[in-house]
Write the structure tokens for this entry.
Amino acid sequence: MFRMLSAILLASPAGMGGGVLCLLGLIWCFSPAPLPLALATLLAGGGLLFLVGYALRRDRILVQRGDSVTGHAVKVTRSIAKFSLTLSTPGPEIHPCRIHYRYTVDGIAYTGRSRLLWVPPVLPKDRRIRVYFDPRKPARSALDFPIIL
């Protein structure tokens, strides 16, 4: 359970934001803050955590059970959002990255993008990557890149 929750929290800024909202909601439940505000915050955080967990589970299932082809990484983009790993002192800032890729299934070209990655991916020089897809809906795809190194 802890391993799954930590993966969801570290999966993306939305997962981390959901965790922060849940924590704030729990703190506010036991403080003089209005109860509706605390419950709304707790529900919003729980909703974000659910959505991120669902996306991670869907990607994991595609990687485990889907078909795969060799694709091509078109570009790696960095988010404009900045995150620092330290709370009290200025530390190194992290910009989540996303891999944009293309692949072909049965002669039809598709494009996709990875989930947000905390660490810039190390791509091969030829930019060829393994793309996992749903054989029933080839437009649904995923990459098997670690969330954090």
